[in-house]
Amino acid sequence: MTANTTQDNKVKKALIIEDEGDMCLLLNILLDGKGMEVDHVQSLSAAEEYLLQEKPAIILLDNRLPDGFGIDFISLFKERSPASKIIMISGIDASAKDVALENGADIFLEKPFTRAQLYESVNELLN
After folding, report:
1. pTM of the complete model
2. Of 20, 46, 60, 61, which has the most beta carbons under 10 Å away?
């Protein structure tokens, strides 16, 4: 592999904002399988801190978190990291889809979603 090829295939960073361990593990495994570098936080405040240091290519944002609703932080995350694409994930609040998209989410995934739906969403946003 040449140096140019390595540069072109730079590993993309993903941030998972999710407080449920099982869901986080699943997302981590699926994204890691796509060759992404995955970081994880369990709260909105931790995500705010993270975004002061890092600018992930993609953010997977759960709606119900211990310190608030992800949907209320989409615009702040877009402000902190304008190039980041946001996939809003929610299992309880399907009605939140329109608001999430209006607030700046790029894609809304309703739980349960399939591996194919996740990959399709990630590929659509990053390619």
Report:
1. 0.90
2. 60
